[in-house]
């Protein structure tokens, strides 16, 4: 049985507990991953503590050169990485390349770290006094990442954290851990010193060890909301800086004047791409007015009939299997809940079998109509290839739906009316808004983060928000007396007056 080891500066470590890694196309176990504990984390932290001061003292231009070299290495190994990613996650190869590419764009941003870390300076803040504020690394940061973007999300975190001069310990999802390990190998090859990026595998035991470890200053988490909230609370109670991104239920509002052909094409990709396993997927569509809803539904049914579900290496497949059998059962359970709650199941993707891959974790595209806000299947995240139509009578009703939902990650509006779009963007209570853009994931030099139960903590991921998260401010107030002034103690708080 293939084993996916930790990536530690101290080398291989013994394990007593393991987790299975599946091949979701075939539906069989393909490897096992050791689950680390607090002792293993201690060893990783000790190595990080040894490496970090030297790395922080390396000038930022040299740290940026490591990022440039890493980018080139990831590009050189793109095919291997994409294949590895698809084989554990199940998303199609082109989509895996997109996952890697979106992470690389954060590395490109991190290549500008010398500029990003330049501080602020006030010459002559008082008589002969200058003030200098600069951002310095925190020390050791940790990242805990979900299964659905095993390349992009680790790079969101370690790209910025390491460029800022921190050492980083990554605890990736135990469901698809190979790509994060391979990225750590490539960063080492690019010139990052040993101990600057380590990968520890594990489950709750390792997460708790990270949250409690006194030498880890900051934790970035991305995953489901209940766990994000737990990670946030426990990490903050231990005195750490924590950002914890959670789940989502993104809505797409379709105004009567929208270009429906474009909407249906956008929706098919956004709802069913990556089998719906994206936190920026669009699993709820809100047509405004009955005729918009009826027309949209009819066109969506036709578009679904043309979708091709296939193995992740099939270049013609639109999407592949979900990540494992437990997740498949969970998604199918939510479909049943929707039926039980009275929604109309227009297309049922359950029981889908791919010839030659009957044990694979495939789910066909599923469409519900007449979903209402009181249904649990609407309130909760399904994270599968399931699209729900929630009909709204007016623009006001449509704005209210995503605004009052427990999640507030992304939202989109489809319209030709600039005024409606502008009003919507201004009023909707959601963190990332798309106008005729179904998946409004901000570019790397802006920042990623939702609202409400989609994110706990302050700073967003990447962009200057990421730089702020992974650094703290040191402010130096200085004067260089020439000895001519009269001395004497001052018992009054110094002012610059
Ligand atoms: P998950 O919450 O199950 O796991 C995320 C991480 O937490 C993993 O590393 C896992 O090992 C760890 N973990 C699991 N159970 C734990 C526990 N009881 N205690 C402590 N740690 C635990 O999430 P997932 O299924 O891997 O990923 C899918 C979820 O992530 C979805 O809810 C999706 O919306 C969300 N997500 C959010 C964003 C975002 O930026 N908001 C991005 C991607 C995914």
Automatic annotation (TrEMBL):
Domain Aldehyde dehydrogenase, chain residue ranges per copy: 17-476
Broad class of enzyme this protein falls into: oxidoreductase
Short name of any one Pfam family annotated for the protein: Aldedh
Keywords: NAD, Oxidoreductase
Biological process according to GO: L-valine catabolic process; thymine catabolic process
A molecular-function term among this protein's GO annotations: methylmalonate-semialdehyde dehydrogenase (acylating, NAD) activity
Cited Gene3D superfamilies: Aldehyde Dehydrogenase, Chain A, domain 1, Aldehyde Dehydrogenase, Chain A, domain 2
EC number of the protein: 1.2.1.27
Family annotation (NCBIfam families): MMSDH
Protein's name according to its UniProt entry: methylmalonate-semialdehyde dehydrogenase (CoA acylating)
Taxonomy of the source species: Bacteria, Pseudomonadati, Pseudomonadota, Alphaproteobacteria, Sphingomonadales
